Amino acid sequence: MKRLRMLSLSLVAMFAALFVYANVRQLSATEKLKSVHFASFTWGSDVTPVTKLSLHQKINSVPGVTACSISQEGTGAAVIFYPDQVTETQLATLLATTTHLAVSQKELPTSGGCPVHNLDASFHRFISALDIRH
Predict the structure, then answer these.
(1) Angle, nearest 10°, between helix axes 88-99 and 49-61?
(2) Is residue 109 over pLDDT 60?
(3) Which residue has better confidence, 105 or 22?
(4) Domain that holds residue 67
(5) How many distinct structural domains can be found in the chain?
(6) Residues 41-94: pLDDT tens digits?
(7) Residue 72: HSE in the Cβ half-sphere, 13 Å Cα cutoff
(8) Residue 71 lies in a domain
(9) Could you tell me the CATH number of the domain that includes residue 101?
(10) What UniProt keywords are attached to this protein's entry (predicted)?
(11) In this structure, is residue 67 part of a structural domain?
């Protein structure tokens, strides 16, 4: 019983130390920025260069969109945006009405390819979750 009490006290002390660290540490420049989302859309056929230019201008003029890129072939678009200002559904609707084609969202793989070690990334996500300043 004494060992269990010591173990639980140690765990509480470690959690408290992590909580204090998460809320006292200096935030990095990227942690101070608003988070953005990335969405990729595709449609069935090519669009004309004039339509590509019009589409690019319309998407970039939407409040909350920070960047837009239309594929060279004119069969898809990648958009970086603030999710609190515009949604993926709104972007897909705008793309569909501009191209007059059926637009579908391209699902991107969520694992692999990142050079950041998983344990380090998990630790930073945990510390960010404890940070009450966000």
Answers:
(1) 150
(2) no
(3) 22
(4) 37-106
(5) 1
(6) 887 777 788 888 888 888 999 999 999 988 888 788 889 999 999 988 888 888
(7) 0
(8) yes
(9) 3.30.70.100
(10) Signal
(11) yes
- Is residue 65 within 8 Å of 86, Cβ to Cβ? yes
Quickly count helices (H) and strands (E) in the chain: 5, 4
Pairing of strands 65-70, 103-106: unpaired
Partners of residue 50 on adjacent β-strands: none
Q: Examine residue 32 and state whether it is found in any structural domain, yes or no.
A: no
List residues bridging with 79 in a β-sheet.
Answer: 39, 68
pTM: 0.64
Q: Which tokens in the block code for residue 131? A: 């940070």
Note the Cα 41 to chain centre separation in Å.
15
Cα–Cα distance list, 78 to 29, 102, 131, 132 (Å): 25, 16, 31, 32
> Phi-psi bin for 29: left (phi > 0), alpha (psi -120 to 50), beta?
alpha
Eight-class DSSP state of 115:
-
Q: What is the DSSP letter of 111?
A: S
The Cβ of residue 59 has, within 10 Å, a number of other Cβ atoms equal to 22
Q: What is the Cα–Cα distance from 104 to 83, expressed in whole angstroms?
A: 18
Q: Is residue 85 part of a domain?
A: yes
Task: Return the half-sphere exposure (C-beta side, CA atoms, 13 A cut-off) of residue 81.
Answer: 24
Identify the bridge partners of residue 81 per DSSP, sorted by sequence position: 37, 65
